[in-house]
Amino acid sequence: MKMRSGKTEKLAAIDIGTNSTRLLAVNVRALELKKILYPAISRQMQITRLGKNTDGTGIILPESAEKTVSVLENYSKFIKEIGVDRCRAVGTRVLRKASNSGDFIKQVEKRTGIKVEIISGNEEAALSFRGAVGIISEKAHTVTSGENILAIDVGGGSTELILGGPDGKIEQMDSIDIGSVVLSERFLNHKKPSEKEILGLEDFAEKTLLPVSSNIKETGYSSVIGLAGTISALASIDLCLKNYDRDKIHGHYLSLDKIKRLYKMLCSTDLKERKTITGLEPARADIIVGGAAITVKLLELLGAHGLIVSESDILEGIIYSIF
Question: Domain ends where: 119, 147, 174?
Fold first, then answer.
């Protein structure tokens, strides 16, 4: 669909992930051919942990489903109140994996009217890249040879690596079955990670990430963008933000050395201590170690010196897909 210049629509995107459920509502107005404005009306996020223990049980737990549906009820009420014209809701890894995801989707539609679409890992990667690619600017840091941009999206249940150009054209994309929730639940059994747990976690992450990262390193890239909750949390900790500040996080550069220091600090604290770290949302304290480990291992395997943090991700990609 092509909009006539001047026409404005309200669009909404919902991302139902393993760890969180998020909403982006925007005004979209056609300015000229292939160019739009979409100032955000609202950004909302709730940690709902829909994928809690899904790897072990193979199902979405009733309490996790109820918490997520309750949040979606609030989102549905909100988008009706503001008069959203079109909405797209997508589910990612947890809904791809859980045997009862069909029941969950039916429950969501019955109680909220929202139709949830389960997308593939590759489409998840493509949407994330489309949403994030606009961050490349004068803040971009050259990390190795090549002209492609590499976006890494460390989610709760999976990690996406997308290689493409500044124009949004994708050259290669991979969805890897490893995320902050999955890794933390699988390897970290103590409030303060033991050395054995950390070594096991890191070894598994390295072996899982090696094949894809080797291919990307061989192809080459010019800049690395980091997306999603883990990387935003690392930036927030680095910036010592007492309250979430999207403008400060968006475009922040994190060197590999800095991420390693943050990771070492997180590994040396127990859960209670991590919940008090400035910049870290307490609800993310139990999974941040797993997410940070993935980030460190990826950058090491890629031979990258660091990454640029983007707060634009799959939600913006969903908005583009609606338009």
Answer: 119
